[in-house]
Amino acid sequence: MTPSDLPRPIHKIHERSPRSFQEASVRKYQELAGKNFYRDENCSQILDFLFIGNIETAYNEHLLCKLNIESIVDISNMEPHQIPRHRKSDCPCTCALETSHPRARLWLGVGESRNTDMLPYFEDISTFIEAARRKDKNVLVHSLEGDSRATCAIIQYMMKYHDMTLRCAFNLVKKRWPTVNMSASFQHSLEMWERKLLPGVQASMTFEEMSRQNAWN
Ligand SMILES: [Zn+2]
């Protein structure tokens, strides 16, 4: 086994200078933002192996097969029988594989109240996604609409495992998936996550500052 075969180590942000970390994060954003990734009205590719989507994507067998999704993080809070009929696709998988595709799933019941803190779920979500990446599996993270819980889940993963600040991770997801619409408590969870990952380093952004800027523009 050569060094390049070994799993990529979890970065240790605090061992790098804040400035070099922030500059590397911006470079990473620019590199990723320029990629010509998959996108449709229900799903968007964020990284080589990582997709965000809504409930339609999660039940579209044809698309899951086409995108080679083998791991799913389900934060829809819905059992299959609870999903409205009109939101389930009638697109069966038509590939040559005769058995149904096995897929690893992480199901998380994340409350939908305005005060729900997503921080307690971040470790489980990012560990699951990263384990799939290390096995070369493509991952879909979905919630009901994909604009709040799934968005928050993907941003925190990129902060932890892809050397991105909150600002860069948020901007990247927003560029690829413009319907981003997170509650104030989820925004707060992400700000706390950055503090935890980058102790003692000035926050890369606050959502309050961003909404003030947007109000002026
Ligand atoms: Zn198939």
Automatic annotation (TrEMBL):
InterPro entries tied to this protein: Dual-sp_phosphatase_cat-dom, Prot-tyrosine_phosphatase-like, TYR_PHOSPHATASE_DUAL_dom
SMART domains per record: DSPc (SM00195)
Enzyme class of the recorded protein, top EC level: hydrolase
Tyrosine-protein phosphatase domain residues: 42-199
Source organism, top-level taxon: Eukaryota
Pfam family name, one: DSPc
Gene3D superfamilies registered for this protein in UniProt: Protein tyrosine phosphatase superfamily (3.90.190.10)
CDD domains according to UniProt: DSP
Keywords: Hydrolase, Protein phosphatase
Annotated EC: 3.1.3.48
Family, as annotated: Belongs to the protein-tyrosine phosphatase family. Non-receptor class dual specificity subfamily.
Name this protein carries in UniProt: protein-tyrosine-phosphatase
Organism of derivation: Priapulus caudatus
Upper lineage: Eukaryota, Metazoa, Ecdysozoa, Scalidophora, Priapulida
Gene: LOC106807002
